[in-house]
Design a protein that fits this description.
Order of helices and strands: EEHEHEHHEHHEHHHEHH
Largest sheet: 5 strands, parallel
Distance between the termini: 11 Å
Helix content: 40-55%
Radius of gyration: 24 Å
Strand order of the largest sheet: 4-5-3-6-7
Strand content: 5-15%
Structural class: alpha/beta
Low-confidence stretches: 313-318
Number of strands: 7
Length: 318
Amino acid sequence: MSTHDNEVKSGSPRKLDKAAYEAELEHLQAQLVAMQQWVIESGERVLLIFEGRDAAGKGSAIKRITQYLNPRYARIVALQAPTEREQTQWYFQRYIQHLPAAGEIVIMDRSWYNRAGVERVMGFCTDAQYHRFLRQAPDFERMLVEDGIRLIKYWFSVSDEEQEARFRSRAEDPMRRWKLSPMDMQSIARWEDYSRAKDAMFAATDTPWARWYTVESEDKKRSRINVIADILRQIPWEFIEPQKIEIPKRPPEKGYERPDRSDYQYVDDVAAALEKGRAGEGPTAAAKAEAAEKATAASKSSAGRAERKRAPRKKPKK
């Protein structure tokens, strides 16, 4: 059994069929592209807030959501810690400049709710600042909604056991090790503190005009499908027939002569070593060694994770 946020749940969700998952994801992503066109042409403003436990799958879900969207009208906001100047401002002030304009979709990968979560648990704000935030957040969000912004808030939920497994996987993967920070390690030691903070946050800010929607994220693939489907359900978009694009015929040449190639610098054609049918076909020796090292590390990580799942665990506190 594992602690799922502050709930106790047993077992893991069944794995999705890979082919079915990929087909459904592609279908939903195509709908997201159509939805974005409606947002652009209708001048709607969409604000999606993604919060949740560390390693709960927020980033990978955002990646799939934005993968095919027009980046001119879809932005991801992931702010660093506030500067000394920003610390003297009204708490919500630094977020206001990132709110969507007409035709835009903004996704906040963490948001003003840092104050109700990490800042509260780690002591980065005073009690007075924390309680002021819980009073002001509902009013702030009501003003956004009343002004016409479509605000949807998602909380990604993951168990303590799965979170720890993902941390260990990241620690052993040089390509994803950057995702870990000392603050992430605190989320293990302070699991129950974060649970209490989340409960208080929901109690104060789950309002009729800005509800919280929980995304079960024990299985990342399942959570991606579910959150994209929910976005498409909550935004009342309509399919807009795209304008037909005609590719013009290329005009006849008018005597342009290209300068000699030797006048320019070109990058080396390293990819030539990967051509089919060439001697030594395939990756270079260095690339092979690096791939083998990564595969070995992944294998060890998988084996360790399986061993941890087989090991008996004490019944967690509710």
